[in-house]
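Progress narrative, Year 2. Work on methylated-DNA--[protein]-cysteine S-methyltransferase from Chromatocurvus halotolerans advanced from sequence curation to structure prediction during this period.
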Amino acid sequence: MPASTHYQRVAWAIRYLQQHHQEQPSLSELAAAVHLSPAHFQRIFTAWAGVSPKKFLQYLTLEHARSLLAENATVEEAASASGLSGTGRLHDLFITLDGMTPGEFRRGGATLQIRTAIHETHFGRVRIASTARGICSLSFVDYDNESASLERLERRFPNAALTRGTDAHQQAALRCFGGTGRGLGPVQLHLQGSPFQLKVWESLLRIPSGRLATYAQIAGELGRPGAARAVGTAIGSNPVAVLIPCHRVIRSSGALGGYRWGLPRKAALIGWESAQRASPEA
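Result:
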């Protein structure tokens, strides 16, 4: 069974857990919620997450989120701990961001050739779109809205030449799903956004996997401590899911906050990355 199919079961279980967190459902109750036996559920969950459901659920608690925030793992500290010369080098080792020119922005991509395809990933199906210079869109696609995802892409680039197909940029992006980021080839992003949005997205690239930041911390890093709301808006408009890790930004209270692709998926991403960080083999 593919990992994307496992993910659907995991997402259903996480959604059930979020709806019934006060009752602290047991393994049997979670398994019943996704219409599986406890043994079968445990098996596919562990195959997907690398840890047992019981262990994984610890990474979804408010206490865990607060503990990550309490580490005060700022971008500068993370870079120093990695032995890197500067914060900008942390994720630029394999993900780089290139903004579209003002002309490309204004003309709705009139000069762009964009390829797009649907792919299966560790966290569900995605539509990836790419130009000759890199990934310009990556969105999660539920099984009933493939056409809607294409329409959103067409609205974002109304004058671009869209064709169906994949390329090396898309394949490089896919290698980041379900991986730790180690040993991966470079991934190029070619994004349409305002100068402020690009700065916020670049800031997100510097949050390491398995870590979390708050909207206020991102605003402070950008030298605009009172702009947490504007930061949140820019994060919400992130056109490249997972690669620009907006799922790693939560509220100062430890609550998840919002997520364009649904809170169960945000919780799954955070939990999976925490599990990988905790594993000595990750």
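Residues 3-19 form the longest helix (17 residues). The domain at 3-58 is CATH 1.10.10.60 (Arc Repressor Mutant, subunit A).
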